[in-house]
Amino acid sequence: MKKIILASLLNVTILLNFSIANEIPDTGIQRTPGKVDCNDELKICSYVAQNITSRDLISKLNANLFPGSILSPSEGYLTSDGIKKINFYINNEAMRLKFISAISLMDTLEDFDPSDLVLLTTDIFSLTDSGLTNLQASLVNANASTSEIANWAISSAFGGPAGLALKLGTNLLSSLLGSNKVKEESSKLTTISQLIPNQAGINFSNTTKVYISPGSSGVVKEEQAGLTIGGTVSISARDNDLVVIKDYNLSYGVVGAGGQNEKVNILSISNPQLYLVKGTSGLLVSSLTVEENSKTTTSSVSFGKTKGKTQNKIMIVTRAESINFKDFVNEMKKTRTMELHQQFSEEEKAKLPTNEIDLNSVLENIVPLAYFTTSGDRVLGFKLDQKDARLNNISKNIEILVTSGGIFSRGLKQKIILPLESLMLSGLKFAPLKPKELKKTSVDIRLSMKEYSGSASIEKTLHYNPETNKFFE
């Protein structure tokens, strides 16, 4: 019989583990393997898998008992009968018993040690020529105090025929993208975030077929517009903040205008080893110029006019961060219990101080928040200090009114009622400021908070600097 010698070598292992397999505890989702039923007269056996599918069980049995081969008709057969059931016939009695013993070993949930993960983020922006110039000037200015080499590298990259390709601190880039000069001249087209197991391949594609009208040739051409990303991620063994993307390739096709016929302009990037460090961004701005067309909006596959400005440059920002799988699971467990308006846990409540504190003092203790997201979106808001939390105040509801601007220049107006503990844990995110306000040297944001059906109340004005994206002390 084929592979009988190899099967015999597995005999000791199978027999030693047979009793153990029958004692697999019925814990969690995993079930104890079932019983093999055999018809002694016909010598046909059947088994209903408890933890995996019949096809997976057959694959595991073949791989372990008959590697590189399968049973011949004279030796027997092994078939799938539905999703969970298998039928088999083994001509050799000793081999049949070994086969039955092996089934209980194979019918288990997969036992694996999960790989660590890489969070890969790709942002794609469109910019006007003016926006590109302002970004270049801001970058050179930001690096003015570092080194002449940095200045030269940035200036050369922007001026080169292949477009810009350099690494920037993510915080620096996000603040530049959020600045008024660049924000008004750019639009974010798409953001792709992927969690990829370490040393696994990237396989992202979101494309649309575009049929190009026939020109003088009379032939309709088909091209792909949209985004494709490929490569393999790998975390450095020496420095977990360092990620390399091997054989990195990105293709971005954008519908433009070419005379009377549409065309697809394609930006392609390839790098055998793209290195990315946590907290930095890989930045590429194409030298490609997309011709102005009559569209009034932009999308992930087309450019157009936005408020009278033609955004005709493509900017691609790439970031990568390694994530320990255990940390990832812990964060997911936290996320599972997280709500929009968070609450203190029972354990946290038990540890709260017992001394009394005046509610007006709690409302006065405001912590302003101002930051840019990685894609340049401006976020403003505030929290109340958690150190002021007490059992007798965290459930109190607070009426909040947020306003800016004046009588002749209306700004934001936001009214909401939230529990005190939510203001301490989640905080409040302000509505966006008006574009005119962001051009000022200082914006006054007025907060009015009072206890619902109570006497405590405060009014406070926060002074915000749009240029630095910080609140004045």
Q: How would you sum up this structure, described in words?
A:
The protein is of the alpha+beta class and 473 residues long. 25% of the residues lie in helices and 39% in strands. The protein folds into three domains: 4-106, no CATH class; 117-212 and 219-325, no CATH class; 336-471, Immunoglobulin-like. The strands form six sheets. Strands 6-12-15-5-7 form a five-stranded antiparallel sheet. The protein has a five-stranded antiparallel sheet with strand order 19-18-21-22-23. β21 (443-451) and β22 (457-465) form a beta hairpin. α3 crosses α4 (93-106). The model is unreliable at 1-26, 144-165, 290-298 and 303-307 (pLDDT under 50).
Q: Which structural class should the secondary elements be placed in?
A: alpha+beta
pLDDT < 50 stretches: 1-26, 144-165, 290-298, 303-307
User: Considering DSSP H and I runs of 4 or more, what fraction of the residues is helical?
Assistant: 10-25%
What is the general shape?
flat
Number of strands: 23
Distance between the termini: 85 Å
The percent range for strand residues is: 35-45%
pLDDT averaged residue by residue: 77
Tell me the major beta sheet: 5 strands, antiparallel
Continuous helix count: 13
Number of structural units classed as domains: 3
Q: Largest sheet, order of strands side by side?
A: 6-12-15-5-7
Rg of Cα set: 32 Å
